[in-house]
Amino acid sequence: MPEDEKKQEEFIGPDGTPISKGQWKKYQTQLKNEAAKKEKADARAAAAPQGEAKAVKEKEEEEELDPSKYRENRIRQLENMKDPYPHKWPVNRSIPSLIKEYKDIENGTHVEGVEVVIAGRVLAKKGQGKLIFYDLHADGVKIQLMCPADMHKVGDFTETHKLIKYGDIMGARGMPGKSKNGELSIFPSEVKLLSACLHMLPRAHYGLTDQATRYRQRYLDMICNPTVRTTFEIRAKIISFTRRYFDERGFLEVETPMMNQVCGGAAAKPFLTHHNDLNVDMYMRIAPELSLKKLVVGGSTVCTRSAASSATKALILHTTRSSHQWSSTWHMLTTRI
Fold first, then answer.
1. Which of 92, 128, 284, 306 has its CA 20 to 30 A from that of 252?
2. Structure confidence by residue, pLDDT tens digits, 102-116
């Protein structure tokens, strides 16, 4: 065999010396394995930041669902914000007026050239990515905010909407319109967190059902149970009608003392308190009949008094007429407030 062909068949090892064909194949296999390991290591290193970000996001979501950490997380979020409580948000329309004016527009249309600025409490947040929906509640009604990323003009879309949580008060600036499904919506070019809710509210699906909590935290009851607002509206209308009824008939509305040194007017057990400035013990008003009778003696022929009774916890209206020398108590509304 010629000398040149012999040299071509020689296999060189890593140290530059000739090796056998079998050793050379093993060496090539080793090189391939090392290259594969390096490629996998590089891939893991590249994926590590994404995995860490995902883990951090999962941890944040877990903490957000944990009531014990919710307040702490929201406070930390507000501390990192440049303007957590904006000084002004110039609302120019109420949600009821928007619903009344634009409820009959066609599905899938926008009212171009009209800019509305509204505010309310977020009681639902849906969607992700480039399209987010809110249910904004104010004045006893709600309206949908439909927030596509391509209409957003002020600030970063993702970061701005990330700050807004369930229960927050937010503002929106945009144009009214209707979705393809026929729901009246606002399509905002700007949204802003106006006041963060630092406590986790009960979700709408479960609601607030504990009777003690509802009476002790009526503001929470009004947020979670919209029908409660109706009770307050009816109560206000009853008081207004009763006051107007007596005003039209010449009754004079007067004020009577909330605390007295002598209790009277009912058989209920009195509430005792102490007046620090006068250094005397006093009784909270149970019923104002005695004061009204003093007015009769003083010459007030017709008078009326709307008062809260400490004994009955009900709104009661007292009227007196000197001509008949009678006193009557009208229990107008016995709902606890």
1. 284
2. 988 999 889 988 999
